[in-house]
Please model this.
Amino acid sequence: MPSVYIKTYGCQMNERDSEAVAAQLVAKGYALAPSETAADVVLLNTCSVRDAAEQNALGRMTTLVGMARKRRPEQVFGFLGCMAQSRGRELIDKLPDVDLVLGTQKFHRAAEYLGEILAGRREKIVDVAEEQGSEATIKEHLLNGKAKSAVTAFVSIMQGCNQRCTFCIVPDTRGEERSRTIPDIVAECRELVARGVREITLLGQIVTSYGKRDLPVKDGRSAFVQLLDAIHEIEELERIRFTSPHPKGYGDDLIEAYARLPKLVESAHIPVQSGSDRILKLMHRGYTRERFLGIIAKLRAVQPHIGITTDIIVGFPSETDEDFEQTLSLVREVKFQNGFLFKYSPRRDTPAAAMPDQVPPEIIESRHARLLAQINDIGLAHYESLVGTRQQILVEGASHRNATRLEGRTRTNKIVIFEGTDRHRGQLMDVRITRSGSFTLYGDPAIVNVE
Ligand code: SAH
Ligand code: F3S
Model:
């Protein structure tokens, strides 16, 4: 049988989609190749959020098809995911050696299409159509593909986004919001837990809008909180996370869930994007700085140690020094434990790309550097402050940085590296933090009880 190599760009949703495609192909008898050059089939699962991400995948594919032409003309190439969706056939016009272009609602057809191409029945396939029910098609998991993945798993609960932030291409690449049912999601989670998974991260572009159109609010609880309640019932599941929420989804029912559900860990990635009300409005984010700060205060009132991280865009069209100062001051006020900074990148057919006063690249660069320094200072000081504390970690497996050690995560989503053996894998254990590095903690399980 042929071998396949899948390279993933972008977010966790993409990782999850790639995992599902890999599982689908393995079930059909494909082997997983160790590298792009060794594979019979190479699939790039792409990201369109910023131009740089698209250019990376295009550059990689150009190199790969160039090498194949000389050495292995029979190699099969495909683009999957967001860029496949937004560019479609244009990708084959640009790179004629590409055989398959598969959109975001068609991942489940990968095996069928590759089979036709490999058998020589069809030469090129482009399928970027919408497909009803595609949100429920991503179910297969490949837990043993990665050593760590048996302890933690991603579960996709919805697809698409209707928010239409003016800078964002996702509503175009991922389509309208579509949610899976609670029983369907719970069944997938139960199966994962039966296979040894202890922590589940629920995924979606805007998870807090889960089920809005399908499930009415019950006893004051939104569909998303009803889903959390249902998953929380699963015995032997230890931890629940989710990403990405939208600030407008933090109603009192969700805040209260943090107080009520012990498996819902004290961790939240809440994209704020900007600290300036004027920019937030132009972005169509649907909240003000004050409302955002109010959410953070409420979360901290129920979970004082909650680890909060965020996404911020610098250089949105018309952003002035004063707007940017508002972002700096918001970051100081909230003290995010980490933040992902994005330089604004104009995206095709988005309202922001047509807005006047695009910010010059050199100003974006300098604001980016200033904000990054500030986020790092605050984040690293927080990590340092944890030295000497005791933390509960879930042991995921061998450390990425040093395979002779183990790695786990705190409830607030910080990596802890420590000496241990594989029998600790999948266990919850307490460690004492002995030192902190760059957004990493080091722990010692042995001295936990020495107060
Ligand atoms: N809700 C999605 C957001 C997808 S985009 C999620 O689940 O991750 C991820 C982040 O990329 C956004 O939060 C935003 O900060 C950034 N981003 C999106 N569009 C962008 C653009 N045009 N330029 C720069 N950054 C962008
Ligand atoms: Fe994009 Fe805004 Fe949705 S950032 S994914 S349109 S919430």
Remarks:
- The mean pLDDT is 94.
